[in-house]
Predict the structure.
Amino acid sequence: MGTVLIKSRKQTTDGVAPNESIPVPTRRKVSAVLWLAQGVLALLFLFAGGMKLVVPPEVLATMTPLPILFMRFIGMAELLGGIGLILPGLLHIRPGLTPLAGACLAVEMIGATITTLAIGGGVTALMPLVVGLLAVFVAYGRWRLAPQTARPGRTQTTAHKDPIPTGAG
């Protein structure tokens, strides 16, 4: 039994189609690993972001030297990023948001790693570094290795005509 190859028709800005000539069984395995990574990251970021939003300011101030409003902003970004890792692929609506969410969370984890090192974290900086690398894997994987597809008609925008004439003319 031969290996079936799938050729993508979608062209990118660099002229190379994503997942071009990746065997179907390999692409399915990569997709399964990506879903697992997305689930783990989503749970992690939903929990961490939710905690930053619901913990009282006094308690949050004892946990970090960063300003409370900045931590609330980070919490909201983590919460939205966690949602963005799962919902677009699950609902097949705007699946291109998944690699964007992964990339944004990777940037956040770069900041978390640098901040942890700056306040003298040392070995504790490994956690945000590993989480950031996992987010990079999801971003690249969903962008190039195993991109998700939208249901037909879900991502196309239609021009809406103004139903009320303006009377100009």
About this structure: The longest helix spans residues 24-54. The helical segments are 24-54, 57-63, 68-91, 97-118, 126-145.
